[in-house]
Design goal:
It is globular and about 60 Å long. It folds into three domains: 3-111 and 280-352, no CATH class; 122-275, Rossmann fold (3-Layer(aba) Sandwich), CATH 3.40.50.11540; 366-439, no CATH class. It is of the alpha/beta class and 443 residues long. The protein has helices at 15-19, 122-131, 144-148, 172-179, 181-195, 209-214, 218-221, 239-247, 265-275, 306-312, 366-370, 377-385, 389-394, 405-409, 416-439; strands at residues 28-29, 34-38, 49-50, 57-58, 63-66, 72-74, 79-89, 94-103, 158-162, 199-205, 225-230, 260-264, 282-288, 296-301, 321-325, 333-334, 347-352. Strand 13 (282-288) and strand 14 form a beta hairpin. Helix content is 29%, strand content 20%. It has a six-stranded mixed beta sheet with strand order 1-14-13-17-15-16, with helices on one face. The chain has a four-stranded antiparallel beta sheet with strand order 2-8-7-4, with no helix packed on it. Helix 2 (122-131) crosses helix 5 (181-195), helix 5 (181-195) crosses helix 9 and helix 12 (377-385) packs across helix 15 (416-439). Bound molecules: iron/sulfur cluster (2 copies). One iron/sulfur cluster (SF4) is lined by residues 371-373, 375, 377, 400-406, 417, 420.
């Protein structure tokens, strides 16, 4: 079921208002009795290489195991690994193995990593990104170190720090920018050093006087770090949008082609902490929407179950709700609220579940008009429904960024994005096969 049914088109103009549900409120702290660590690699879905087993005692920040690309998975709390459970993984969309850790609430921590300052080499900073398991905090969770591998040879001149947070409801980046300014600046300085960049821009939307006040002296603190604003539109947080808006540059596949790297504000803050020897065990997420009693920003251990956090906030409102891991535009409501908060999640959006009364397509073209990538979502939907794979390939659904605008805008309440997603999955497999054949010279 689509969460867009709960929004309706009039809400197009209320996106900003939804942030007020949690913005400016005190950050609450929740300490669950148990956390559940998925023991599969989120990238490949293969089991991670484990360092521990059931019955072991673990400390906060201890390495539980290592993923395929060499990034570690940390225990977020101290306590005992009491059992294994098969649970739903919201990132992978299926059930996987988890280790349940009984939280002793004593916060016994492992020895911190060596503190590295700005004298550290670019290689040392990239290595620290990897050993601290730092991943992009904008929602995608891509390992941060990969963006910086070989960056010194790519003529990167500018780092763009994305504080746009254009999803409705979510306010964690906004609060982090206000509360952790020093760490943000420090993290940006490490990113600039790792990439050899001369400048950096902290980018956020127009219309936030609290941020303007907080960052008005940024150039007197570090003359190479500046502030840039983007329009208050959706999806202004999209990397291509930011690169175009701030640097007036375009690129084909990666921002590095435009001599820039884009990172989320919270990623920069976490890098400052990683250089100070800390690994990420806890995070602040926004839990918001009309389906939760007390919308708030909450500091929780990573791998806490969504249902436990909601209970801490007074429970659900209404008979039936839809829980989305992230904001409502890019993520979908899941059927299982026992899934856990992953290291790169920034929120839970909880809205009343409503029946979707889909009407036939009006051929109005609104989805095509609003697609920021320039796709024709309705045509992709038709091709998918007709099982016309040649047509699907011609319509290039793999360029979809999953912004959800086509579904949001559709007057017939058709979940167009869902069809585009399915077509993307089908054509991506075919695309990979074609590329492999091309490599082998078969054509
Ligand atoms: S979800 Fe994909 S197809 Fe739909 S508007 Fe966004 S980019 Fe375009
Ligand atoms: S917006 Fe909806 S009704 Fe209009 S063309 Fe697209 S799918 Fe059809």
């Amino acid at each position: 079921m689509s969460i867009f049914t709960t929004l309706g088109h009039k809400h197009l103009y209320r996106i900003q208002d939804t942030k007020k549900l949690s913005m400016g409120k005190e950050v609450l702290k929740f300490e669950p009795n148990e956390v559940f660590v998925p023991v599969v690699d989120p990238g490949s879905s293969k089991p991670i290489q484990l360092n521990v087993s059931i019955g072991d005692l673990v400390k906060e920040g201890q390495v539980i195991g290592t993923c395929e690309k060499g990034t570690p998975v940390f225990a977020p709390v101290s306590g005992k690994i009491v059992r294994e459970e098969t649970m739903f993984h919201a990132g992978l969309g299926r059930n996987v193995r988890h280790f349940a850790i009984e939280n002793d609430k004593k916060h016994q921590k492992v020895e911190p990593l060596e503190v590295l300052d700005l004298k550290a080499s670019a290689e040392q900073i990239v290595e620290r990104m990897k050993e601290s398991g730092l991943s992009g905090q904008g929602g995608a969770g891509f390992p941060t170190y990969i963006k910086y591998l070989g960056a010194l040879e790519k003529n990167i001149d500018t780092i763009l720090i994305n504080g746009v947070e254009c999803e409705p409801f979510l306010t964690t980046d906004h609060e982090a920018m206000l509360l952790h300014k020093d760490e943000l600046i420090h993290g940006i300085e490490f990113m600039m050093k790792a990439a050899g960049a001369k400048d950096a821009y902290i980018v956020y939307k127009k219309g936030y006087p609290d941020l303007d006040e907080c960052y008005k002296d940024i150039e007197s603190i570090n003359p190479s770090i500046h502030v840039a604003h983007v329009k208050n539109v959706y999806p202004a947080g999209w990397e291509r949008f930011i690169v175009k808006a701030v640097l007036k540059r375009t690129y084909d596949k990666l921002p590095a082609e435009a001599h820039t790297i884009v990172n989320n504000v919270t990623t920069a803050i976490l890098l400052a902490r990683a250089m100070n020897g800390e690994v990420e065990t806890h995070k602040v997420i926004t839990v918001s929407g009309s389906g939760v009693s007390n919308p708030s920003n909450v500091d929780v251990p990573i791998y806490t179950r969504a249902v436990d956090i909601v209970e801490f906030l007074g429970g659900y409102v209404g008979e039936s709700v839809s829980v989305s891991f992230g904001g409502p535009m890019c993520s979908r409501g899941v059927m299982d609220d026992k899934a856990v908060i992953l290291p790169y999640y920034n929120g839970l959006t909880i809205l009343p579940r409503m029946t979707l009364n889909t009407l036939p397509c009006l051929r109005c073209g609104a989805c095509t008009d609003h697609c920021p990538v320039g796709l024709q979502p309705v045509e992709i939907k038709d091709a998918y429904q007709a099982k016309d794979s040649d047509r699907m390939m011609a319509l290039t659904p793999w360029h979809c960024i999953g912004c959800g605008l086509c579904s949001y805008i559709c007057p017939s309440k058709i979940d167009v994005n869902d069809f585009v997603k399915k077509a993307k999955l089908m054509t991506s497999i075919k695309l990979k096969q074609l590329e492999a054949q091309k490599k082998e010279g078969k054509k």
